[in-house]
Design brief:
This protein has helices at 19-27, 49-62, 98-103, 108-125, 133-142; strands spanning 73-76, 85-88, 93-96, 151-152, 162-163. The chain is α+β, with helices and mostly antiparallel strands and 172 residues long. It has a single domain, classed as Zincin-like, CATH 3.30.2010.10. The chain starts with 18 loop residues before the first helix and ends in a 9-residue tail after the last strand.
């Protein structure tokens, strides 16, 4: 009998917990919003790569994976137009939109946590629903809602709605 080749999308993927196990684990956790004020606040300029790494380390520590912070690359990508951030799962990279985040600094940390949750969910559970149970459990543990979109101003000082938050998550 010939050995069946595993589909490319399932190679090197860690075993998944069942949804029931994840929910049980999630319900046993004490959730609460993490504090970042000692590292960065929205009244400051956008955080640089070092600050983004430290913010991420704090979130990843809450999820039990602080050691992953050094393996994730962060940067601002001016080519992003309609999303606050983009996660590249396999590369372990997060791109942030400098234009939208400059105009909506209160969204920097929620966006960073959102994109980190995608990378962590992918590393822990493999290819799962991008905004599904695993993602939402991680977001809740960090004290955030697991929403895919938010209402934003397009430019600094502009109050009009701009609908489209974090998105375009790519497994490359």
């Amino acid at each position: 009998m010939a050995k069946q080749k595993m589909p490319r999308s399932h190679r090197n993927v860690q075993p998944r917990l069942s949804d029931e196990s994840l929910v049980a684990c999630h319900l046993s956790l004490v959730t609460g919003r993490l504090s970042f004020d000692d590292l960065w606040t929205p009244d400051q300029p956008l955080p640089d790569g070092g600050v983004l790494r430290e913010l991420s380390r704090r979130v990843l520590a809450a999820w039990g994976h602080a050691e992953w912070a050094d393996g994730i690359r962060f940067g601002y990508n001016g080519r992003l137009r309609r999303c606050l951030g983009r996660a590249f799962f396999k590369e372990g990279r997060i791109d942030l939109n400098p234009r939208l985040l400059s105009a909506n600094r209160s969204q920097v940390i929620p966006t960073l946590v959102h994109e980190l949750a995608h990378i962590v969910a992918w590393r822990l559970f493999g290819e799962v629903n991008a905004h599904g149970l695993h993602f939402r459990a991680l977001m809740a543990k960090a004290g955030f809602k697991g929403r895919a979109t938010v209402r934003l101003a397009k430019r600094e000082g502009e109050g009009g709605p701009f609908v489209r938050g974090s998105g375009s998550h790519i497994a490359t």
